[in-house]
Amino acid sequence: MARQGVRARSRAWRRSRPFWGGLLVVAAGLELLAVPLALSALPAAVMFGTVGAGYAISLIMVIAGVLIWSQPGQRVFLGLVAVLLSMASFVYSNLGGFFLGLVLGVLGGTLTVAWTPVGRPAGPFDSFGVRGAAAAVRSLAGRRP
């Protein structure tokens, strides 16, 4: 019984924030951080840019992923930061962590930007379609003196 309560609280917490986008951004940052640390094990490595920039990008991506979880109201800004840093990792961090960190970061950032809260009440422009636009034009045209 108590286990179901924990599971329900966990599910509610995940749904109240862009969980999967933050998880992918954290995974991208950790992958970008792991590639330079494992270069001694790889027989050949491709290095572009400076070493410090690769570490900074990966650490900022991990921090951005944690902030996505803790501050869902800032999701658009943090998602854009994650996408831009992922694109910069292509140049500064071994072709974006051999493309894996680049893809994870872009997917996580776009998921974060696209996420919307579940319990948000529908506003007047949330379901605005062609019929609604035509009705609005007709009502404005009828108001002319």
UniProtKB/TrEMBL annotation:
Source organism, top-level taxon: Bacteria
Transmembrane segment boundaries: 20-39, 45-69, 76-92, 98-118
A Pfam family assignment: DUF6114
Sorted UniProt keywords: Membrane, Transmembrane, Transmembrane helix
Protein name according to UniProt: DUF6114 domain-containing protein
Organism: Actinomadura luzonensis
Classification lineage: Bacteria, Bacillati, Actinomycetota, Actinomycetes, Streptosporangiales
